[in-house]
Write a structure and sequence with these properties.
With 472 residues, the protein is α/β, with parallel strands linked by helices. The protein has two domains: 51-200, Reverse transcriptase/Diguanylate cyclase domain (Alpha-Beta Plaits, 2-Layer Sandwich); 209-463, Alpha-Beta Barrel (TIM Barrel), CATH 3.20.20. Helix content is 51%, strand content 20%. The chain has 16 helices and 17 strands. The strands form three sheets. It has an eight-stranded mixed barrel, surrounded by six helices. Strand 11 (297-301), helix 10 (312-323) and strand 12 form a beta-alpha-beta unit. Helix 10 packs parallel to helix 11 (343-356). Residues 211-461 form the EAL domain. Residues 69-202 form the GGDEF domain. InterPro entries: Biofilm_reg_signaling, EAL_dom, EAL_sf, GGDEF_dom, Nucleotide_cyclase, Rev_trsase/Diguanyl_cyclase. It comes from Rubripirellula tenax. This is Phytochrome-like protein cph2.
Length: 472
Amino acid sequence: MSSVDSFEPQIEAVEIDALQRLDRVVDQLRIEQQRLETITREDALTGLLNRTAMINDLNAEIASLAEGAEIALLYFDLDNFKPVNDTLGHPAGDRVLQTAARRLIESIRDGDRVARMGGDEFAILQINCPQPSSSRALAKRVIQRLNEAIVFDEQHVHIGVSVGVAIGPFDGDTSNELLKNADLAMYRAKQDGRGVLRYFETEMDARMQARRKLENELRLAIKNQEFELHFQPVLDLTSEKIVLCEALVRWNHPQLGRVAPDQFIPLSEKTGLIGPLGAWVLRRACQEAVTWGDDICVSVNVSPIQLRDRTLVQTVDNILDETGLKANRLELEITERSLMSNTDLTVGLLHQLRKLGVRISMDDFGTGYSSISYLRKFPFDKIKIDRSFVTGSDTSDDSAALVKMIASLGASLGVKTTAEGVETCAEMKSVRDAGCTEIQRYLLSRPISSDSIRELLHDRQTNGNAVTCEAN
């Protein structure tokens, strides 16, 4: 045997060992590649696809879509999720997101994909969607599942979900178009209420563009101080004196003209602009009130969004200090809607405001489901009875009884009651007889400018009663 022949088995052994090691390296590389792919496609918190992965899958499905075939993109935004984070903390919020993710997975068919798109937003890509009823059925399953209470650590958390749907290729033949249109539909669902499903419609895009334009104009208006305040007086029914004026913000746009408050105030809340706008309103209202008599107060509406701002108390204190207005001449009005979330935070904040000497009133009392229970929890100085109860109280026994009941409740709690929406002398007599302490509305005065309110107050001091009713 030659020397070469004697080395052949050794060479083969070396080659086999090298090949085995190479196989192991390849396997390790494959595992690492799969791990990296998982990381790049998976949302770390929920284990769902992430936004990038959903967009990639959406592009692939659109590219391979057969003629006549459809796909549905369902876009979800959790309702009432932010209060969970604010009241229970971010760990609780994470558990809610994880539970929502599991319920989404439980609701889909085989082949559908679920992704967390960011924050509390999710999406489902429904493949081979045979008809609209298929996506509708899926959306309803999700709405039903997410309306069920989430229970952990003896806490019962109630959220919900708003759903927007875009159908490809009709509502878009690119991932960007489908995502945008599903998001527009979801935004419309949010506007229409909790647990709502909406399909994309072309006019939604036009509305969104108009909204974005108005948002830009609103930012400029705050910067350029295009707003002004109007004031509506409140009459004490015992002394028949004007004791307070409510500040109401107005926007007179250079090109658009008068923009209705029900347009720009909700927009300012959604965009976070309510903070600077609310501070401006409070400052100007206090500046105006300083020019009135010392016995006349000013009231300012506070948004639910402002009540989530932990700096609100300091802002109010600073503005009172800057303007020189005594704290007991400032009244802050909040609605029941403001109290429906962040209860502990809001209670603490209202108590801090009361310590400053500021007065607190509940606006639109009776329009919600838990007004009476809130009166036990919150430090109110006044109840404002919603105009829906006051209107017709002179002719309707039911309305009169409701007004009397609320006025009696106020008296038993030691708080004032203001009847809103008093338009006639007969209604004024009715609410006076029911036990209300104050009235507000057009019978006394419509909202008027700063100059006009000063004239009215001066005339009131000089000439006496602002309202003359034979029925008094």
